[in-house]
Specification:
The complex is a heterodimer of chains A (157) and B (518). With 157 residues, chain A is of the alpha+beta class. Chain A has helices spanning 2-19, 26-37, 45-52, 56-65, 85-88, 92-103, 145-154, and strands at residues 77-82, 116-121, 133-135, 138-140. Chain B folds into 4 domains: 3-95, Glutaredoxin; 118-327, Rossmann fold, CATH 3.40.50.11540; 330-420, Ubiquitin-like (UB roll) (Roll), CATH 3.10.20; 425-517, de novo design (two linked rop proteins) (Up-down Bundle), CATH 1.20.1440.230. Helices cover 42% and strands 15% of the residues of chain B. The chains are: A alpha+beta (157), B alpha/beta (518). Chains A and B meet through helix 2, helix 4 and helix 5 of A and helix 1, strand 12, strand 16 and helix 17 of B.
Chain lengths: 157, 518
């Protein structure tokens, strides 16, 4: 445990040192930490505060303001379903209900086997091929119930 | 002779399987062992035909679409390499009615060139605007932009030249150009398409802005939801630096300019310019009170031009062809062209760049071809989640900043989301309030509290609890939000809500059974 947290701290310090010279470095640092660990480990927030000479409250405020940052790891896959108007117009709400039913989780939830986290997203810019989704880094347009079932099965493999 | 195929790398095309199509085409080329290359272009913006393959022929580019990976072998068997006919054959793409009817100024190269080839960019009139700008004084550049009549394409419609003039006349040890690429409105994707399909035009536009106002550093603030756009932009920036378009001497001149991409973190409100600046500085995306204007005290308190992607990407053509050329398009005080984004439940969804002035009905029915489901159009939301819902009765409204304002709407970033007659407008009004509650930055009370109260009031209407009284409360609440909110998030949320209530009152007095059936 000791060595794991020391490891996180040293990797985090490396990232912070590399980026702290940028103008407005806080978001780039948080993004890089999340890329590195899959989430932003809470113990790294005081390290950021110290390096940037700002208060821990300020770092906490920024970290919790933005929807993207996580304080714990997501599932092995992240399925983002667009819930905005263009996707609603093409039956997005019904698909979203189906997804929650298929995976047995609600928004922001992760399946018990750790396979997938379901996130709402408000627009992927794929509004002319709605409904849209994103599975990890892969964008998906004209999503239908059949494809959703395939995804639900595939992520659990 | 090498045959050139084009398969888009635009994320809309990728979402429909373009990557598989490109891989399948490459495999077939290798197996059949003929001399061919695949260019990964941007999208033409005809999403009902994506993934679209184009092939270069002596007569022009012939297109095929929508292509599935499993179609590729049959297409080649039917002579696709020479433009041969097949059920997916679309003919000469430039003659396609959807493209032939457009006036492509900002999107002139999008879908045609290789987005990360500076040679392609130059060969298609790229950098001419910047070269012309380098021959002018900063105030002459600003005068050109002012004269062109270009107004902010992000939604507010503020004259771009006036903004630039203010920054030019403000002294500062450092000035910035900030590109607002935080395109969060549902129904919009023009910024994404430019960044993925013609990133150099944005780089050129920002560089001209930098020279015009005396800024040496630019930031493109875009969304984490746009990973492909981020990747293409970064690739193009690297090429522009290597080639001396950016750097300490822009195209060999005495001007220095460089650009960095910054990525947001899923906050819609950061599309509001002052919240965006806060976010860039590393803070919560909380809206700032104005004044001071960003032009006086913007990023890090320095004079800052903050413009939308499309505003900046329209500058090169203005400096290339001249302000009068650009100004000649359009109507009234809406000059030039606007990239319409036709989305949602529509048959021919995509990007259609045209001069201002088409009517809403022409856009939805003639260009968009009506709904994808084949049912009648009930409503069109124009301008994103903060835009009004327009009924068919208002289909004669011309696409123009002032004409939409006169009908209690806005054109916003020119996204149109079409809904068929199955839509429940009460539900849409609820969503507008819910979205505002989720995305509110929390600084001002009308937005923070009003949106939550709004959801509750709409829910009481749904439950048929004194609906007449609730409608009165909702109207009053919208009035407070509209005039009491600090920015457009709280201030414009009443547009979708009130337009739904005004134009579709029957949905606000539902019989409980009808609601259950929907």
């Amino acid at each position: 445990m000791q060595s794991a947290s020391t490891d996180i701290a040293s990797r985090a310090i490396g990232i912070i040192d590399q980026l702290k010279g940028k103008e407005g470095p806080l978001l780039p640092i948080l993004h890089e930490l999340q890329d590195e660990f899959g989430y932003v480990p809470p113990e790294t927030l005081p390290l950021i505060a110290q390096a940037l000479n700002i208060s821990r409250a300020e770092v906490h405020g920024v970290f919790t303001f933005y929807h993207d940052y996580r304080d714990h790891p997501a599932g092995r896959h992240v399925l983002k379903l667009c819930r905005a108007e263009a996707c609603q117009s093409m039956g997005g709400d019904a698909l979203a209900d189906r997804a929650r039913q298929l995976l047995g989780i609600d928004w922001h939830g992760t399946t018990a086997d750790g396979a997938v986290t379901l996130e709402p997203v408000y627009c992927l810019g794929l509004c002319a091929c709605a409904p849209a989704a994103m599975l990890d880094d892969e964008v998906i347009g004209r999503l239908d119930a059949e494809q959703l079932e395939e995804i639900a099965a595939e992520v659990r493999l | 002779m090498t045959i050139t195929f084009y398969v888009p790398r635009d994320s809309g095309a990728l979402a429909l399987g373009a990557e598989k199509v490109a891989r399948s085409l490459q495999t077939e080329i290798d197996t059949r062992n003929f001399d061919a290359r695949i260019v990964r272009n941007g999208s033409r913006g005809m999403y009902w035909l994506e993934p679209m393959i184009e092939v270069e022929t002596p007569n022009g580019r012939i297109a095929y679409g929508p292509v599935k990976a499993s179609d590729v072998a049959a297409l080649l068997d039917n002579g696709m390499a020479e433009g041969g006919v097949h059920p997916l054959w679309l003919g000469l793409i430039d003659h396609h009615p959807f493209l032939a009817k457009q006036t492509r100024l900002t999107f002139a190269r999008c879908g045609i060139t290789d987005p990360v080839s500076l040679e392609d960019y130059r060969a298609h009139d790229g950098l001419k605007g910047l070269e012309n700008a380098l021959k002018l004084t900063p105030s002459e550049i600003v005068a050109q932009v002012t004269e062109s009549g270009l107004r902010g394409r992000g939604g507010a419609g503020f004259p771009t030249g006036i903004k630039w003039k203010t920054v030019l006349e403000t002294t500062g040890s450092q000035k910035y150009i900030v590109c607002n690429a935080d395109e969060g409105d549902s129904g919009t994707f023009a910024d994404r398409m430019i960044m993925e399909g013609d990133p150099f035009v944005l780089i050129e536009g920002m560089t001209i802005a930098g020279i015009a106002v005396g800024a040496t550093k630019g930031y493109i603030y875009t969304r984490s939801e746009y990973p492909h756009a981020i990747a293409v932009m970064n690739e193009a920036l690297e090429i522009a630096r290597e080639d001396g378009v950016l750097g300490s001497s822009v195209l060999g001149s005495s001007y220095a300019f460089d650009i960095e991409v910054r990525v947001g973190a899923g906050a819609y409100v950061c599309g509001e310019e002052t919240a965006l600046l806060e976010s860039l500085e590393g803070r919560r995306g909380i809206v700032r009170a104005k004044p001071p204007l960003p032009a006086h005290k913007g990023l890090f308190g320095k004079p800052t031009v903050i413009n939308n992607v499309i505003s900046l990407a329209s500058v090169p053509v203005i400096l290339d062809k001249g302000a009068p050329f650009y100004k000649d398009f359009g109507m009234g005080r809406s000059r030039g062209t606007i990239p319409l984004q036709i989305a949602g439940n529509v048959k021919h969804g995509g990007l259609f760049e045209a001069a201002f002035g088409l009517t809403l009905g022409e856009i939805v029915e003639d260009i968009g071809g009506g709904t994808a489901t084949g049912r009648p159009v009930k409503a069109v939301q124009v301008g994103g989640p903060l835009g009004a819902y327009f009924p068919r009765e208002l289909f004669d409204t011309p696409f123009d900043y002032e004409a939409f304002t006169a009908k209690d709407g806005l054109i916003g970033h020119a996204g149109l989301v079409v809904f068929d007659d199955s839509v429940d407008m009460l539900k849409q009004a609820r969503f507008a309030m819910e979205f505002c509650a989720i995305e509110s930055c929390g600084k001002c009370t009308p937005c923070r509290i009003g949106s939550t109260r709004g959801v509750e009031v709409v829910d009481r209407i749904s439950a048929n609890i004194e609906p007449e009284k609730q409608i009165e409360v909702l109207t009053d609440l919208c009035h407070t939000m509209k005039f009491g909110s600090l920015c457009a998030l709280g201030g414009f949320t009443p547009y979708p809500v009130m337009s739904a209530l005004t134009h579709f009152p029957e949905d606000f007095r539902p019989a409980p059974i009808a609601v259950a059936a929907e």
